[in-house]
């Protein structure tokens, strides 16, 4: 940075180690005499030097941080829409059968009621405890009113206390029939894909909520693609894309299009992606995009 005082202010504001994650891709690789990358003995990943690639600037690293922050805000915007709608759908589909469905094992796949070796409780018991803590801690007016009157809370009240993770786990534990009901309301027929999406979106949501870098993060769990889905057939996600942000953007847009056909979220995403800062090592492929030309607008009809 040309101004040392401005550099100090940014480091004091954002923290050295937070920013170091953004300039890390610009660090040069350690190579042997044959020019091959040397693996780190601890992580197995290519070892980085303390030297930076040519044209690396502190300003660009800060811009990448700002770019990532804008990405996180757009991700949270989409996830909020999905979460609110999913709560409504779960409450409707389960509540029309039993207003206290979320407390009943009748809707839960039997395998989640069993205690696995090495564990004290079943996944169902752990989830019940988790959601009860959410209810106890909630200060939502509808929940406070039921609690004050010592009234049982029907599912359409209880879901207001759940976070995305609680919602995601509940869907995973449901029997096939209610899973199908809920998936259909989201325009899907592939339950396995929806379970995968909710799990990965919950991880993304947590990273965003805790201000953790997302632009080049990858997951060991590839998102599952629905069988014969025209949307995904058209964009043809690679395995790399399915483990990175591009895959999650695609999943969110597939859901948002069904929930809110008037949404312009994908246009805002495309514009932001195309504004990615120019920093050595900061590539579109690190986000899972198919080329270095930017957001594939034609594949999304924009």
Question: What features would you highlight for this structure?
Answer:
2 domains, two-stranded antiparallel ribbon, about 300 residues, mainly alpha, globular, Abi family protein
C-alpha-based Rg, rounded: 23 Å
The class by helix and strand makeup works out as: mainly alpha
Gap from first CA to last CA: 37 Å
Quaternary form: single chain
Poorly predicted regions are none
According to DSSP, the number of beta strands is 2
Order of helices and strands: HHEEHHHHHHHHHHH
What portion of the residues fall into strands of 2 or more residues?
Answer: under 5%
Strand order of the largest sheet: 1-2
Helix content: 40-55%
| Average pLDDT reading | 94
Number of domains: 2
Number of helices, counting only DSSP H or I runs of 4 residues or more: 13
Major sheet summary line = 2 strands, antiparallel
**Overall body shape:** globular
What can you see in these coordinates?
This protein is mostly helical. The protein folds into 2 domains: 4-56, no CATH class; 63-300, no CATH class. Helices cover 52% and strands 3% of the residues. It is built from 13 helices and 2 strands; from the N terminus they run ααββααααααααααα. The chain has helices at 4-14, 16-23, 58-95, 123-137, 141-148, 155-158, 164-173, 176-185, 191-209, 230-235, 239-242, 245-259, 265-273; strands at residues 27-29, 48-52. It has a two-stranded antiparallel ribbon with strand order 1-2. α3 (58-95) crosses α8 (176-185) and α3 (58-95) packs across α12. The longest helix has 38 residues, at 58-95. The radius of gyration is 23 Å and the shape is globular. The model has no long low-confidence stretch (mean pLDDT 94).
């Amino acid at each position: 940075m040309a101004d040392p005082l401005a550099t100090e202010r940014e480091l004091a504001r954002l923290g050295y180690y937070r920013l170091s994650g953004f300039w890390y891709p610009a660090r040069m690789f350690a190579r042997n005499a044959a020019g091959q990358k040397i693996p780190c003995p601890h992580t197995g990943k290519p070892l980085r030097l303390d030297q930076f690639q040519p044209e690396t600037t502190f300003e660009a690293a800060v811009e990448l941080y700002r770019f990532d922050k804008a990405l996180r805000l757009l991700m949270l915007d989409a996830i909020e829409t999905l979460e609110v709608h999913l709560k409504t759908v779960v409450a409707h589909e389960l509540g029309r059968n039993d207003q206290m469905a979320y407390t009943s094992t009748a809707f839960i796949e039997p395998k989640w009621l069993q205690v696995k070796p090495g564990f004290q409780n079943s996944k169902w018991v752990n989830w019940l405890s988790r959601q009860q803590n959410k209810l106890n801690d909630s200060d939502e007016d509808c929940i406070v009113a039921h609690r004050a009157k010592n009234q049982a809370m029907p599912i359409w009240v209880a879901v207001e206390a759940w976070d995305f993770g609680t919602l995601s786990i509940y869907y995973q534990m449901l029997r096939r029939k209610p899973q199908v009901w809920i998936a259909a309301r989201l325009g899907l027929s592939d339950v396995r894909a929806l379970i995968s999406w909710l799990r990965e979106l919950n991880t993304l949501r947590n990273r965003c909520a805790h201000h953790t870098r997302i632009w080049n993060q990858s997951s060991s769990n590839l998102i599952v693609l629905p069988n014969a889905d025209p949307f995904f057939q058209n964009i043809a996600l690679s395995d790399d894309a399915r483990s990175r942000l591009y895959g999650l953007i695609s999943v969110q847009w597939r859901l948002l299009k069904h929930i809110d056909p008037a949404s312009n979220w994908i246009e805002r995403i495309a514009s932001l992606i195309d504004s990615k800062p120019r920093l050595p090592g900061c590539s579109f492929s690190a986000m899972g995009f198919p080329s270095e030309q930017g957001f594939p607008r034609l594949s999304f009809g924009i």
